[in-house]
Amino acid sequence: METMTLPKRTLLSTALLSTTLCSAAMAVNANAAEANPNDLLNATLWMQNSVEYKANVQGMFQLATMRAEAGLHDKNWSALPAMQPEGFGQLPPAIIVDCDETMLDNNVYEAYLIKSGKGYSSKTWSQYVQDKVTGAMPGAVEFANYAQKKGITIFYVTNRKKENEQATLENMKALGFPMTGAKDVLLTKGEKPDWTSNKTTRDQFVAAHYRVILMLGDNLGDFTDASGTPKERLATYKANQAHWGKDWIMMPNPEYGSFESAAFGGNWSLSTEQRRAEKISALKAWQPKS
Which residues form the signal peptide (predicted)? Predict the structure, then answer.
């Protein structure tokens, strides 16, 4: 039998140590997730791994392409008719899109929250954005480039903060998004004093100079500031029936959004357990007769 030399022993010891540390890290992550069950789990698993989600999103971009074609050739077509100036039919066409979970896919950040047993924080979110590792939604880059070729300017109206704008811009350019057509097409939260998390002022900024033929988003707030309780949200949804699927395209996002906070009155000061209890209470459930 060959006597093991010192370098071989060292390599073996290093490999064993590495394996042990890796196993320990996995155990820590598993214990963190088990100790802090996260409501993001199934939603993130579906959005990250399922072909059903990818097919759904790609289908929405196919619909958006068809609707953009229709809107491009109909000068009376507008997704924001109340905001458009007189004679808006002569304005150049534009599309307003949200970024996160509409054009950009942040499932790796959500997976980090689950595996680390942590909740969302602006600090870790900013670190993630600055790392510029965000991916593109299936079909998003292709849709954006289609619009550019048709002479349609896409405005990315996002609630990513002003301080993260440059990193977001670089990330999106690297993914192949056309960030052209106007001096500034990435409109971030806080970029101007009145550009708050409510997007109306930014929508008005675009609508004053462009005919907005289409809007894409994953949250009610991407289309209208009217929100509130679940009952009020339902009323807003019903009041805008003519828009859905025509010039307002809603993307699927079961991970987060105003649908969740509406269930507990937007009171984020409640503990995770209290918020979960309120969400469960908001569910309408079938009950067996016996």
Answer: 1-32
134-160 tens-digit pLDDT: 999 999 999 999 999 999 999 999 999
Residue 199's SS3 state is coil
38-280 CATH fold: Rossmann fold (3.40.50)
Q: What is the pLDDT of residues 179-195, one digit of tens each?
A: 998 999 999 999 999 99
Whose structure tokens read 């390599």? 11
What residues are paired with 244 via a beta bridge?
Answer: 248
Tokens 């458009």 identify what position? 84
CB-side exposure of 31: number of CA atoms within 13 Å? 6
Write the CA distances from 202 to 32, 115, 211, integer angstroms. Answer: 40, 36, 14
Task: With beta carbons less than 8 A apart as the criterion, state whether 130 and 190 touch.
Answer: no
DSSP designation for 244 = B
Cβ neighbors of 50 (< 8 A, separation 6 or more) are: none
Residue 145: its H or E element: helix 140-149
Domain ranges of the chain: 38-280
CA dist., res. 213 & res. 207, Å (int): 10
Asked if 105 contacts 164 with a C-beta cutoff of 8 angstroms, the reply is: no
Look at the pTM and tell me if it is higher than 0.90: no
